[in-house]
Amino acid sequence: MPTSPDCLKAVEYSRANRQTALDGLVDLLRYATISSQYPANQAEFEKCSEWLATRLVKMGFTQAQVLPTREGGAPAVYAEWKGAGEAAPTLLVYGHYDVMPVDPLEEWRRPPFEPQIDDRAIYARGASDDKGQVFAILCAAEAWLKGSGSLPVNLKVLIEGEEEMLSPHLEALLVEKRDLLRCDGIVIADIGGLGPEVPLVEYGNRGNCPMEISVSGPSKDLHSGTYGGAVDNPFNVLARLLAALQDGETRKITIAGFYDKVKEMTTQQRQYLAAMPVTDEVGLYLTGAPALGGEQGYPLKERVSSRPDFEIHGITGGYTGPGIKTVIPAMATAKISFRLVPDQDPDEVFQMVKDYLAQLAPPTVRLSFTLLGKSYPATMDLNDPVVVASDEAYRRVWGVSPVFIRGGGSEPVVYMFQQHTNPAILMTGFGLPDDREHSPNENFELRQFYNGIEMMINYFAVYAALAKGASLF
Amino acid sequence: MPTSPDCLKAVEYSRANRQTALDGLVDLLRYATISSQYPANQAEFEKCSEWLATRLVKMGFTQAQVLPTREGGAPAVYAEWKGAGEAAPTLLVYGHYDVMPVDPLEEWRRPPFEPQIDDRAIYARGASDDKGQVFAILCAAEAWLKGSGSLPVNLKVLIEGEEEMLSPHLEALLVEKRDLLRCDGIVIADIGGLGPEVPLVEYGNRGNCPMEISVSGPSKDLHSGTYGGAVDNPFNVLARLLAALQDGETRKITIAGFYDKVKEMTTQQRQYLAAMPVTDEVGLYLTGAPALGGEQGYPLKERVSSRPDFEIHGITGGYTGPGIKTVIPAMATAKISFRLVPDQDPDEVFQMVKDYLAQLAPPTVRLSFTLLGKSYPATMDLNDPVVVASDEAYRRVWGVSPVFIRGGGSEPVVYMFQQHTNPAILMTGFGLPDDREHSPNENFELRQFYNGIEMMINYFAVYAALAKGASLF
């Protein structure tokens, strides 16, 4: 697909105005929008959301507004540009302007909210996650609007302020603003490539079902000299219950029906996965384990992205100080989680676990279960123009196709958007593995920022063409 | 067996001199001999051991001396009386003058080293454990020496200062002083009856083999979103290994050969056990468990005293804070212990556990094991005069025979004395379940103190007669 003259004008504009884009990002990064400290730092959120709304107007957007969320949550920012007309498709850009905490502060070489720039990168909390990435998309839109006078698509922008807190009020907002947010596809830039030469598109992610299981026995801690042999030790029972959840040979989860809703990967998905440069040797290097483990019968790349998983994260109760205290603890509690894949449902899995363990537990103990959150697994349609367009756009700027993978982690917002807005989502991003997201000295490479702007300029054009029925080949 | 006139004189003397005995105990309790704080409080130990040596001379003993222990440990006190002649048997009395710490101090109604007396009891740290009990034996000897002019047995006294620290230097002392401590039987009064009407003789105890088992996998904690399915989680493996140590139905330990050296109780032992007033209902009341557990095929009283046992005390590693953190921990460590019964050996059991788990562990993890101490199981001969004599002596003072049981806890000193001094040991005591040993407001009932003195007065006479070939019946 040839690059259109208007698209070239937008690229030209963006190259001539890199300093303006960078200055804007510096301004955006000065706001200390740490969502876990909200509302103590409410003023920062008010100033930052106002700044974004004002900037969106300057870029050429209309309807720019701060959207309050329910229950006094941090506000979101909305804007739109509808100049492409009703025949053109509409994209919704989602991003977040809140950031992670900055502890340990003493490890930062510069204060986290005083952005610093060197030849390579811009340094500040939020530089990569997600202010820098979402701002790159906004700059791409601005380049179209100012370089060629219009965009090839209608654009809506939603930038929320609670993503690092797992977006507690986003779903209500999506429901409430369903009409305002109506679109043909959604673009999220909040991840990173596998390296500067290997851009990434994530077309799915695993859900999660984290829980606590408590086993209680005696009414108080007992001395095992006096009572050892009288009662079942809750830790001994807990070990048996946890061991019973997973087969020691196949590492399959042993709950009947657990895999009933698990979809095997499609042929197309397996073909895409084959392009991902991750071997067992890489896995051993990255984990430092004596040998790789996990479910038998599936290669590493599939196990960490497209297969469910059971993990124990910690066990509390009893004596954990130095040496030994020969106590029979009154209670033992395990924190565990199950990673889920489409079409598994975290509520159903929680119930399965409860039923299975209740049936296995002896009458010498009592069990209790607490669900510690839940997120749903999701996949996106690889053949929707919103995804397909990214391939051509990346090839134009990076010279290579992105790697298409399903992510192993959980992205609650994807499922929310799919449920309430539109299932067609492009999840990509311009970060890199060394950006130190969530850590001190977070940074965003300038080359990734500028290339990200150009990729998105091209993406708007390619998506518009594909949505009108064009073919890439 | 009738009570001899000399024995009656001793009893008479003790009744006429109760105030002197009590005053002596008050003096002894003023020394703050907390062994876990040694040598910071070395002066207290010096003063207390000197006081004991001086008091023993006043009581009529000879050779009274402070015995230093190796490596600068707290000293012991020794004294003897050999006036019964070579034809008479020799008993060794063992006790300890060190005490437990006093925290939390604010819960004491009176300072722990300012003894207080009311109609019922004497209150101070060490009142019951063990100053009051060992002092009762010394007062019984004094009553013989001053009331009738001699004792029917030769007597040796060893009072150590490190029992609450698990007697780290006692074994070396027993070896070094083997000739000095030679005897026909040993008397220890450091436990309590089941109630004021139910005196107790403990003729055995379980050993213990406490250890840590560490399972390490990845070289650092990993995020389970990214790596879940790539490696075996050390906690998942640890749960399987711990579960494999014990059968979930029979609760038997599953290591091959673990029970090979376990001796079943003898008919005589079972007859004695039948006298112990502990039913399943009592077990449920004392433990507060929903139902009793433990090894199938053995009654509660046998399970807690004469059968080995496996307990998990705590598990460290991973995330144990509030909520969830979906980490695959680099390492998981369990603190566990095995209670052992004759003739199991803690070193052999440690090796068995290591071999068994090493063979079960997958190649995805590494195991390490740390032995956290060890104590040997022991039983005493129920038919030795040193034990038999206690029955008549208790019946004379309490009006009932004591309950003869094997204790479930571990008493390292018993095994040391059996190995190096003499296997014939009477383990009894005059404490009560409410004495608050090791807790604030420790106390010792005056009735138990005075009755304890009289019981020991009678015991010396009965033992001397039995040792010369007399029969109780």
Features of the shown structure:
six-stranded mixed beta sheet; 473 residues; 20% strand; Alpha-Beta Plaits; homodimer; alpha+beta; 2 domains; four-stranded antiparallel beta sheet; Aminopeptidase
Structural account:
- Helix content of chain A is 34%, strand content 20%.
- Chain A has 473 residues and is an alpha+beta fold.
- Chain A folds into two domains: 5-205 and 377-467, Zn peptidases (Aminopeptidase); 208-262 and 308-371, Alpha-Beta Plaits, CATH 3.30.70.
- In chain A, helix 2 (18-29) runs antiparallel to helix 4, helix 4 packs across helix 14 and helix 12 packs across helix 14.
- Chain A is globular, with a radius of gyration of 25 Å.
- The model of chain A has no long low-confidence stretch (mean pLDDT 96).
- The interface between A and B is large, with 80 and 80 residues.
Task: Give a brief outline of the structure.
In chain A, 34% of the residues lie in helices and 20% in strands. Chain A is α+β, with helices and mostly antiparallel strands and 473 residues long.
List the helices and strands and how they pair.
2 copies of one chain form a homodimer.
Chain A: H1 5-16, H2 18-29, H3 42-59, E1 62-67, E2 76-81, E3 90-96, E4 116-117, E5 121-123, H4 131-147, E6 154-160, H5 170-176, E7 185-189, E8 200-205, E9 207-216, E10 222-223, H6 224-227, H7 234-243, H8 267-274, H9 280-287, H10 300-306, E11 309-316, E12 327-328, E13 331-340, H11 346-360, E14 366-371, E15 378-379, H12 385-398, E16 403-407, H13 412-420, E17 425-428, E18 443-445, H14 446-467
Parallel strand pairs in A: 3-6, 3-7, 7-17, 8-16
Antiparallel strand pairs in A: 1-2, 2-6, 4-5, 5-18, 8-15, 9-13, 9-14, 10-12, 11-13
